[in-house]
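sorry for the late reply, my laptop died twice this morning and i had to redo everyting from scratch. anyway the thing you sent over, i finally got around to it. pasting the sequence first so we're on the same page, its 203 residues, then the predicted structure underneath. double check i copied it right bc i was rushing
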Amino acid sequence: MKPRTRAQKRRRRGPPILAATDREPNGRKSRRKESKVLHERQNEFDNVRTAAETRMRHFNLTSVEQARDPRNGYVLGRMFLDGTVTERQHDAGIRYAEDMARYYGLTGIAFPSARAQDLFAVRGSDGEDSTSKGEKARKASQRMARLRTILLACGDIDTGRRVQHTVNIICVENVDERRHLPANMVAWLKRGLNALATEYGVA
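ok and here's the structure:
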């Protein structure tokens, strides 16, 4: 029997072990588990850095730390950071936005804006049966009606509607163009947020 050549022996043993690098000999990114994790972390870092740089340009922020603060990513958060609203008012607005998102998500009603959906979407299915989902949708609708009544009660009929509208465009629709509100709208926003804070028991 003819002795096996070196190449035959190598083929018999299988492919060579990859070098301890994040690249294969052919230049392709390594499929090693450690390298995949490293690549994923690098991609995540790059995405965060890109988002931070974009936010700095868009909102005239002076540092990466400011840009990484999640509150700089939505209108109500920026209003809190610049002192327009208090922490209590901010937290009440977030609770309201979450309740409204739950209402839209469970009832299938379209969100008032894409930005609201991005911030507070109720995503995916949890595998519950339709009866349970129907009950949750009913409770979410009742909750929405309760919150709407609270906001409309912040003054006479006309004022109440203005309060509700202002709270919605800032907290739910996240309309950045309305970031700098006139004084009367700021007053309506605060009035609505104070009423919501009382409802939610926000200290």
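Residues 92 and 101 are 14 Å apart (CA to CA).
thats about all i looked at so far, will dig more tmrw
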